[in-house]
């Protein structure tokens, strides 16, 4: 095993060295054993994957005399985070004749829709002669009581990922309104 | 003693470099290892693409388990002592010095404050077997103990970062209540702890 090898110095001419009287060898085997034991222990207990974090900012409490901001309804997208990892969405105001679309949290699901709609919204605003500024889409995230925390994290994550032309969507967490609920029920999606 | 015939070649190998390396690694792992604090519940965090690393500063940690129970913890021994003193004062519970000392080294806990003294009196092994019922966080203000835990924690340590660590399968209403509780105290910035999702081909700009 590992031992400190005493190499004799001054052995230039290959002469036989005079053997020392006492060997200074120490048996280091137990120490090395211990070292490896510790090494194994620490290697197995160490976790390198540090938890990551998402910073979220929620709007402040509205002041009593504050009015909600004026947003044109073409720019508003409603997202209902439904049960069983489903997303129901529609554009604009909630009206009884509104068609509700269903999608999921995959890459080709909600991400594609948000990107497409953002482009569309930019187009709408440009048609109204507001070319100078690109207006972002406004997304209202409405989780139902049965949606999971995972859904919330996924959708907030999606909001950060879906940037089009460096414009991130504006989003807000809002409770499901009564008319939304009625609409969902009517369409048999609840 | 008869002279032993020496072997032609001793199978001795110089292991010094290997042992050097082993010690180097031991030192490295010893210094970098940080033991994960004991948790009362196992939380399976959801994944996100967020690359932000959780800050190492002192944290106020709100844990939500799979069955929608809320647990609470504050970093820092002295902050926790101050926290319990103030909480006891607000709820009319007198904690003994021994209980306060035990509380200061407690991991996350989740129970109504009136059950806390009995819990603190138990020894560490018995504590593990206690089924914790979660911190009350009701929409009715009088029953919202989480509000006071947050309030007095912020009072004890103004610079603590508020982090929510939730199980992916926990239901949304709990988080809504937590967020509303935070909002009611004008806390509008906090962290959601997630695991990193490594999905190839994610583009931030899909043009």
Walk me through the structure.
The complex is a heterodimer of chains A (190) and B (207). Chain A is an alpha/beta fold and 190 residues long. Chain A contains four helices and six strands. Chain B is 37% helix and 13% strand. Chain B has helices at 16-32, 77-91, 97-104, 116-121, 124-128, 145-156, 172-184, and strands at residues 47-48, 59-64, 70-74, 161-166, 189-196. Chain B has a five-stranded mixed β-sheet, with helices on one face. In chain B, a hairpin with a 5-residue loop joins strand 2 and strand 3 (70-74). The radius of gyration of chain B is 25 Å and the shape is elongated. Chains A and B meet through helix 1, strand 1, helix 2 and helix 3 of A and helix 1, strand 1, strand 4, helix 7 and strand 5 of B. Strand 1 (52-57) of chain A pairs antiparallel with strand 5 of chain B, so a sheet runs across the interface.
Radius of gyration of chain B (Å): 25 Å
Name the strands of the widest sheet of chain B in spatial order: 1-5-4-2-3
Strand fraction of chain B equals 5-15%
CATH structural architecture of the domain at 73-186 in chain A: 2-Layer Sandwich
Low-confidence stretches of chain B: 200-207
End-to-end distance of chain B: 88 Å
CATH overall fold name of the domain at 73-186 in chain A = Nucleotidyltransferase, domain 5
Largest pleated sheet of chain A: 5 strands, mixed
Please give the alpha-carbon distance between the first and last residues of chain A: 71 Å
Determine the most extensive contact between two protein chains.
A-B, 56 and 62 residues
Mean pLDDT of chain A: 75
* Order of neighbouring strands in the sheet with most strands of chain A: 4-3-2-5-6
Q: Quote the beta fraction of chain A.
A: 15-25%
Q: Can you give the helix content of chain B as a percent range?
A: 25-40%
Oligomer: heterodimer
Tally of DSSP helical segments of chain B: 7
Largest sheet of chain B: 5 strands, mixed
Q: From the alpha carbons, calculate the radius of gyration of chain A and give it in angstroms.
A: 33 Å
